[in-house]
Amino acid sequence: MGNLVNSGFSKLSSVNFIAQTERIITAMSGNANFPEPWPSTVPSLARLQADLAALQTASTATASGDKTQIAARKSARSIVQNDLAQLAFYVQTIAQGSTTMLATTGFPLRQVAQRTLNPPLPPAPAEIVSLRGPLSGSIIVNASRVPKAASYEVQLATADPTVENNWSEAGTWKTSKVYSFRMRAFAKAGFGPWATAASLMVV
How confident is the model at residue 203 (pLDDT cuts 50, 70, 90)? Predict the structure, then answer.
């Protein structure tokens, strides 16, 4: 089971980091899903509050820009970050994947990407057009490109195009006769739906 809560707050500013820690402390105080006392390896709320107070004091002291105070703030923040990392691990262990429980902790939930196990079928080609070719009796069938399509299938109908059995992949045609053409795309998931048929008279 991967990490479901975000405890990596290294990119937050000092103000936002302190505010985030306060939210977690508030959410975990009296939380029935994670009642204290916790295991000794997990910092208690009292310890987390004390470490946060030390960070707030150190942050205030950096207003003058003193490098020693800035280093002290960095050290104090590292302690609070370690507290939060241990607490995050603990709540995830107890929650056993329950995002409902984890949502009560004050930790931001990670956005879990939804994996598509079965890729969708390609859509029907749009704007299918049949044109007379440069040679007598030749026909050109065009359509807009379908993204991720590997190939296309074209069929013609020599009779009523609303009757499925009238469609075939090959055939011969005579001049002065109307033929219908349809096209569909093929991709990794298989064949998509047929596009709306286009008709043309062969001359």
Answer: low
**Tokens (6 digits) for 196:** 């709306």
| Amino acid code (one letter) for 110 | R
Residue 83 lies in a domain: yes
User: CA 37, 104, 5, 114 torsion: positive or negative?
Assistant: positive
The answer to whether residues 96 and 33 belong to one domain is yes
pLDDT at 175: 67
What DSSP letter does each residue of 8-25 carry, written as one string? --TTS-HHHHHHHHHHHH
Q: Quickly count: other Cβ atoms within 10 Å of residue 201's Cβ.
A: 12
How many domains is the chain built from? 2
Same domain, 34 and 86: yes
Give residue 163's domain range: 129-202
Tell me the average pLDDT across 52-59. 94
Residue 70 resides in a domain:
yes
| Helix or strand (DSSP H, E) at 140 | strand 139-142
Helix (H, G, I), strand (E, B) or coil at 29: coil
pLDDT at position 160: 87
pTM confidence score? 0.55
Cβ neighbours of residue 50 under 8 Å, at least 6 residues apart? none
Least confident of 4-13, 16-25, 64-73, 165-174: 165-174
Q: Is residue 71 part of a domain?
A: yes
**Is 91 inside a domain boundary?**
yes
